[in-house]
User: Which sequence fits this backbone?
């Protein structure tokens, strides 16, 4: 694994789905219903499909969809999901304690998610997660199509973040690559929705089994600075 540097971490960017929350059951339930409404009950959607933006998920499940059918599924999904009460979504263990630790250490935390703003806001409100310095979603611009890499760049520029002091924590290869394109420290979670083999091949600075291991990284970088991921 790559050496992650010696700077103390002062800013942590988090992916949301598969990193801080387990939303797979909620998403797959709404996708299955959206497919069913459009007469596509033959497709069985499970958590292995979760991770990419919704349109990419749909096309991975059914790559030969006509554009109008794809749009109808997207519309139905957004109606179902955005108006959900998120009863099947849960926080991963240790998230509340980790966010409190960051706040106590005066480390700014951010969310960078492919989820649109309305369901993101509802989920953060549901779990009373109000200690983020900023939350960036694809639809913060008029086109609503910002990539993960572009969203990270927005936060860095908006908050004038020092890249060597900034870390991205996510569960997919895309999270790692997007963070690396922006020159910040990369942390990959193995217990999310990403493919573990591809995660390892993306060569993150740190590869961890769960969020509890993030405490170790922050502590070591604060006390000694820098550690190879296989040493954790």
Assistant:
């Amino acid at each position: 694994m790559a050496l992650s540097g010696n700077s103390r971490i002062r800013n942590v960017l988090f992916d949301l789905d598969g990193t801080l929350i387990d939303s797979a059951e909620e998403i797959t339930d709404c996708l299955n219903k959206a497919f069913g409404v459009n007469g596509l009950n033959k497709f069985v959607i499970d958590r292995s499909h979760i991770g990419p933006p919704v349109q990419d998920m749909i096309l991975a499940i059914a790559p030969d969809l006509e554009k109008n059918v794809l749009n109808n599924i997207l519309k139905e999904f957004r109606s179902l999901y955005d108006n959900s009460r998120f009863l099947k979504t849960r926080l991963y263990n240790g998230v509340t304690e980790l966010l409190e630790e960051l706040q106590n250490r005066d480390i700014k935390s951010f969310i960078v998610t492919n989820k649109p703003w309305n369901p993101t806001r509802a989920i953060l409100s549901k779990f009373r997660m109000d200690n983020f310095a900023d939350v960036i979603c694809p639809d913060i611009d008029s086109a609503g199509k910002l990539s993960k890499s572009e969203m990270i760049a927005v936060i860095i520029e908006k908050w004038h973040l020092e890249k060597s002091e900034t870390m991205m924590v996510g569960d997919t290869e895309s999270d790692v690559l997007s963070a690396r394109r922006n020159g910040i420290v990369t942390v990959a979670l193995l217990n999310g929705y990403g493919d573990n083999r591809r995660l390892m091949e993306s060569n993150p600075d740190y590869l961890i089994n769960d969020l509890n291991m993030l405490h170790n990284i922050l502590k070591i970088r604060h006390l000694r600075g820098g550690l190879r991921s296989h040493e954790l």
Summary: Strands lie at 11-14, 21-22, 90-91, 108-112, 134-136, 166-170, 185-189, 206-208.
